[in-house]
């Protein structure tokens, strides 16, 4: 990553000021910590503040600037990590008391280390569904994360703390994980940018696992420029030269992905497609079976991962998580094998669709965030659990391992988001389309507060 980041984002502005000596990294970090302490009581996005370690790293950045050394492209930029990323000196709990007696991490997760090397400063761990098994960040141990745009509503999950911290303006970017939609769902409900990279492209070392064959990690941010800059560092890639958006073929997904969506979501997708000049509709086959396969693979792999501990300490688990993990551990092997066979078939069908279009557009959720006291959504005319069903549009796509960029639509009222789906390794095309939607005013994150934007006095 070069010293020059893409302009236009909060992280870029902070790094530019710190590198130029207009602000100190210490003042940025301490200001963000004070803002979290003052405002996060409304949202419950943060589980731990990493104060002393964060200030110490910020002092290192300031010393580098004073000595004329390169402090890194993200110099002094504060960020948060979902509480399943190892942070040196901290216990990684994955949102559960089951792990609280583990030894502190001896080193950072690989992506955290890369961001530190670029000058970014981790200042907090962030709330999540226990062991990342859920779409709502309702956690029996750490509480429910509330949506900054309406604290009576869910933030989504399982990376709900990450999305809410960015939407609240507490942090310019945060790290999340996505197995079945855990970056994309909260990005949609909280109205932030999020990226699920191509499976296997970003290292998972030091990230507590859930479903090894589906897990990916990625960034969430308030602008597409910051999202791209952070992703580039996480993936250890050279800066991307984005293609001309006019050369990118775009189509919308119909069928399953056009059913059950709210009028506001339908109108948002219509506006996006009209602007991009794409009128092609592609309907994928057997999407319901793809979602079912994702459910089965998730349950089986997750259940077997936790089975030894469940035999010893099951009552320490969140009851909702425990029951699903135990059920998954009891699935017959033949069912898991059949799901994997179908997965290969479905992936081939999606690749056929991507031969017709470079980017596929789909909703992320059926509509806006459900209320916390009524955690349900309507699917096929029936009220169903939000915790289990907010991912009806993300789970089938997860099965393929493809990159997906979550775009916050520029809508009035509560946020909505759409998925941009691309071919493996084609994140550049997703970013090109996303940047055009932001430029055209069809996509925008509306963070509240943004205390990190204050200048030194």
The CATH homologous superfamily is called Amidase signature (AS) domain
Distance between the termini: 31 Å
Radius of gyration: 21 Å
Beta-strand content = 15-25%
How many structural units, i.e. domains?
1
Query: Major sheet, described briefly?
Result: 11 strands, mixed
Count of DSSP H/I helices: 14
Characterization of this structure:
Pfam families: Amidase (PF01425). InterPro entries: Amidase, Amidase_dom, AS_sf, Carboxybiuret_hydro_AtzE. The protein is of the alpha+beta class. Helices cover 37% and strands 16% of the residues. The chain has 14 helices and 17 strands. The strands form four sheets. It has an eleven-stranded mixed sheet, sandwiched between helices. The longest helix is centred in the middle third of the chain and has 27 residues.
Quick description:
The chain contains 14 helices and 17 strands.
Question: Which keywords apply here?
Answer:
457 residues; alpha+beta; Amidase signature (AS) enzymes; 11-stranded mixed beta sheet; two-stranded antiparallel ribbon; 14 helices; 17 strands; 37% helix; 16% strand; globular; disordered N terminus
Write the layout of secondary structure elements.
Layout lengths: L9 H11 L4 H15 L6 E4 L1 H16 L11 E5 L27 H8 L3 E6 L11 E2 L3 E2 L1 E2 L2 E5 L5 H8 L5 E6 L5 H7 L2 E4 L19 E6 L2 H11 L15 E4 L9 H14 L4 E2 L4 H27 L5 H11 L3 H22 L4 E5 L12 E4 L2 E4 H4 L5 H4 L5 E5 L8 E6 L4 H13 L18
Parallel strand pairs: 2-3, 2-8, 11-12, 11-13
Antiparallel strand pairs: 1-3, 4-5, 6-7, 8-10, 9-10, 9-16, 13-17, 14-15, 16-17
Helix pairs in contact: 2-3, 9-10, 9-11
């Amino acid at each position: 990553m070069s010293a020059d980041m893409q302009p236009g984002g909060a992280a870029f502005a902070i790094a530019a000021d710190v590198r130029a000596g207009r602000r100190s990294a210490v003042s940025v970090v301490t200001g963000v910590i004070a803002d979290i302490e003052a405002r996060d009581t409304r949202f419950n996005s943060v589980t731990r503040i990493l104060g002393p370690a964060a200030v110490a790293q910020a002092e290192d950045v300031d010393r580098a600037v004073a000595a004329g050394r390169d402090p890194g492209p993200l110099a002094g930029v504060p960020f948060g990590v979902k509480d399943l990323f190892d942070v040196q000196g901290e216990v990684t709990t994955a949102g559960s008391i089951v792990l609280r007696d583990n030894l502190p991490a001896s080193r950072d997760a690989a992506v955290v280390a890369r961001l530190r090397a670029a000058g970014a400063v981790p200042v907090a761990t962030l709330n999540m569904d226990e062991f990342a098994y859920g779409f709502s960040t309702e956690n029996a141990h750490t509480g429910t994360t509330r949506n900054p745009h309406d604290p009576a509503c869910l933030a989504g999950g399982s990376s709900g703390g990450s999305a809410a911290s960015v939407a609240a303006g507490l942090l310019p970017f945060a790290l999340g994980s996505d197995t079945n939609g855990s970056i994309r769902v909260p990005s949609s409900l909280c109205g932030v940018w999020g990226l699920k990279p191509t499976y296997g492209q970003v290292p998972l070392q030091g990230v507590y696992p859930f479903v090894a064959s589906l897990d990916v990690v990625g960034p969430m941010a308030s602008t597409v420029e910051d999202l791209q800059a952070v992703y580039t560092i996480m993936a250890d890639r050279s800066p991307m030269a984005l293609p001309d958006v006019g050369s990118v073929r775009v189509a919308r997904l119909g069928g399953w992905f056009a059913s059950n969506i709210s009028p506001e979501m339908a109108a948002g997708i219509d506006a996006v497609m009209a602007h991009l000049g794409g009128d092609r509709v592609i309907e994928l086959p057997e999407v319901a079976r793809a979602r079912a396969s994702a459910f089965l693979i998730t349950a089986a792999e997750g259940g077997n991962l936790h089975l030894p501990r469940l035999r010893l300490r099951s009552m320490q688990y969140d009851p909702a998580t425990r029951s699903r993990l135990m059920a998954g551990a009891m699935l017959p092997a033949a069912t898991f094998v059949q799901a994997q066979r179908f997965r290969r078939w479905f992936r081939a069908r999606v690749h056929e669709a991507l031969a017709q279009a470079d980017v596929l557009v789909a909703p992320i959720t059926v509509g806006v965030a459900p209320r916390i006291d009524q955690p349900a959504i309507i699917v096929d005319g029936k009220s169903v659990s939000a915790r289990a069903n907010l991912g009806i549009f993300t789970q089938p796509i997860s099965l393929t391992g493809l990159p997906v960029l979550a775009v916050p639509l520029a809508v009035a009222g509560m946020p909505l988001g759409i998925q941009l789906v691309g071919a493996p390794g084609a994140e550049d095309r997703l970013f090109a389309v996303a940047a055009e939607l932001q430029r055209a005013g069809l996509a925008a994150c509306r963070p509240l507060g943004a205390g990190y934007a204050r200048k030194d006095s």
